[in-house]
Amino acid sequence: MDVPTSAPPDSALDLLSRVFGYESFRGNQAAIIDRVAGGGDAVVLMPTGGGKSLCYQIPALLRPGTGIVVSPLIALMADQVAALEAVGIRAAYLNSTLEPYEAEAVEQQLLAGELDLLYMAPERLVLPRTLDLLSRARLALIAIDEAHCVSQWGHDFRPDYMGLSVLADAFPSVPRIALTATATRATHREMTERLRMEGAEHFVSSFDRPNIQYRITPKDRPREQLLRLIRSEHAGEAGIVYCLSRRSVEQTAEWLAARDIPALPYHAGLEARVRAEHQARFLREDGLVMVATIAFGMGIDKPDVRFVAHLDLPKSIEGYYQETGRAGRDGQPSTAWMAYGMQDVVNQRRFIDDSEGSDAFKRNARSHLDAMLALCETVTCRRVQLLGYFGQDSQACGNCDTCLSPPVTWDGTVAAQKILSAIIRLDREREQRFGSGQIIDVLLGKESERSTRSRHHELSVWGIGQELSEREWRSVLRQLTARGIVEAVGDYGVLVTGPQSGPVLRGEAKVELAEDRVPEPRQGRGRGSAGAAGGAGRARAAESLEEGQKEVFEALRAWRTSVAKEKQIPPYMVFSDATLVGVVEARPATTGALGTVSGVGAKKLAEYGEAILEVLGSAHAG
Ligand code: ADP
Ligand code: ZN
Hints:
Elements: H1 12-20, H2 29-37, E1 42-45, H3 53-62, E2 66-70, H4 74-86, E3 91-94, H5 100-111, E4 117-120, H6 122-125, H7 128-135, E5 139-144, H8 166-170, E6 176-180, H9 185-194, E7 201-204, E8 212-218, H10 222-233, E9 239-242, H11 246-257, E10 263-266, H12 272-284, E11 289-292, E12 307-310, H13 317-324, E13 334-340, H14 342-354, H15 359-377, H16 382-389, H17 401-404, E14 409-411, H18 413-430, H19 436-444, H20 449-453, H21 470-482, E15 486-489, E16 494-497, H22 502-505, E17 512-514, H23 547-567, H24 571-574, H25 577-586, H26 591-594, H27 602-621
Parallel strand pairs: 1-6, 1-7, 2-4, 2-5, 3-4, 5-6, 8-13, 9-11, 9-12, 10-11, 12-13
Antiparallel strand pairs: 14-17, 15-16
Helix pairs in contact: 2-3, 14-15, 18-19, 19-21, 23-25, 23-27
The structure holds adenosine-5'-diphosphate and zinc ion (ZN).
């Protein structure tokens, strides 16, 4: 630390306040820090935005030597290090972007005990050369970030993480802390085993993110739906839109840009330089929309992402929860929105069937997908279902679409039987298999060239479903497919009876279906859960400011933008919105008073204190 130190040894709380400018720990932070600072191992499960970084940063400062941080995210290491340097922590990284002489210098700093924290990727850490280097250095701890990557059955497996098991033997006296924002019980167990952390203490936080509003809506011209969402609820705000394919990423970004929504594409097919530039712009500019494949986002700790939209169905709840968790890290109201339809189910099932994986892999992928579909089709609280998936009980949340406007359900048993009969008749009597369009035409008795040619009007099931509209039949089919009562197979998604169809056909099971909401209602935003996610001291919305205060806030933001430009760091690394709001409300007249605002630590106070007081002075005068 190059922050001026007071004489007595630091306590964790001193560091929290002096270095980071925060007044109290959140959730399990204090207990975790205690455990690791005392030399014990810890396995930490905490949702995105919960505050995992401090759990290893503070122990690394408390213990002699350097804390090693293992992270898969080479592209973000420079930013992570810059954020630490901004508060006066001596941090560096070792990765392939460094020139040999730069890496050499970092290694020398490590050996000389001049680093508090050193970031590196797992593949580098396990090289004999690196292990040898580390054995010659004094290590405060080893933190394994995104530790779920070690789990083979999780959603984000990275083979390089497997090698980290050597750490147990290589550094038996160095405390290890494994952290992740996504873990079911199975992943949690696997993580602990593979990282050989049998003796670790486990800290499992609540996974709830109360400030995020979860909404899943039937797909119906999804880009238009997305545009409506952005214009009506998130105009001018930062967001991430996830698409499955590179092509749809490109097209959606262009489509939005043509409608005056500043949007950039991000996917693995773009040149590395372009990707890096788009990522940097997303972090540094206000109000950009990133349209991306899942290649984007891990480790992005931009706090003010206001919405995450999915235009395609994610493969698993783990993935969905991690992606949506990138919204609202600052605790402010945010939206997780998804449009999903029958074709998504067909596509995802086909991906699994066509994949190279073993049978066990495919079975695993199918059960992940089924859980995701159950979430999409649930008629009860989405949050209860999500948290239940992570083994956590909860009550209906009041801040998801099914809570805000409970779906109307109806008895769809007969409708399901009609669909199944149509599929069976076509198959048995004609040896014909069709996709959803033709099945619905048969049910409706809708003449077309194809139905005439195939003489479908001679079938006993012709026209037996005229009580529902085409749109309603599509909704029924989607719900039946999600539940495995109907199955869509092959490249064209031809329909066959699904594994769950038996009891329905025999009249033994009732099929409860939900009416689709058309058009999607504007949601009464369950605003105002700020603070709930992280307890006291959490950001309040800048909208809570009064008129005169808003101008001061804007003046501070303008100042922040100019500082960020000059230093070439993202604005939130200068100060977060929450901290600026705190400054406006406190109206400090002295640097001493400014130092008590949450988020203002010693280094930033020394660096920016005078400038802020100046901005406040002229804003209040003006
Ligand atoms: P995670 O890695 O779990 O997603 P971070 O470590 O990035 O979360 O923390 C999320 C945000 O919360 C950061 O802006 C961080 O500075 C802030 N934060 C963490 N702990 C505290 C605390 N005790 N008090 C106030 N803010 C905190
Ligand atoms: Zn709910």
